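Hey team,

Filing this mostly as a record. A colleague (T.K.) asked me to run one chain through the structure pipeline before their review meeting, and I want the input and output archived in the tracker in case anyone asks later how it was produced. No errors, nothing strange. Just documentation.

Input sequence:
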Amino acid sequence: MRGVIAVVAALALGGCGAAASTLPPAPSGRDDSVPLARLARYPEVYIAAHVTTVGTLHRLGGEDYELEGAGIKTRISVYPARLAKPFVGRRVRASGTFAVTFQTGYELHLDAIAGTGS
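Output structure:
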């Protein structure tokens, strides 16, 4: 009887998660570059991950700055303003921790930002 229960349990567990995921792989290290379009399309994969992305930095007013990329409608807010401010209107490579909040939507909490030269 125990053998039958073990076989049934193994078969039941073996069927769990058999479908392949349609999500992209999560970042695996501090140098993972993620296109803005992918951050916008699959935010659940990148929440609390350290990512690097490229986009154009815009000032919305006050101390609010956002990254924008070609072909995407979603903007990603960047913080802190003191790191973003010198790069307004420029294409940048930004690195930091990605988050999603009810207040602002998608956010990138910067630890590094630099102009791309293009």
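Quick notes for T.K.: The domain at 32-115 is CATH 2.40.50.140 (OB fold (Dihydrolipoamide Acetyltransferase, E2P)). Strands lie at 50-61, 64-68, 76-79, 91-101, 105-115.
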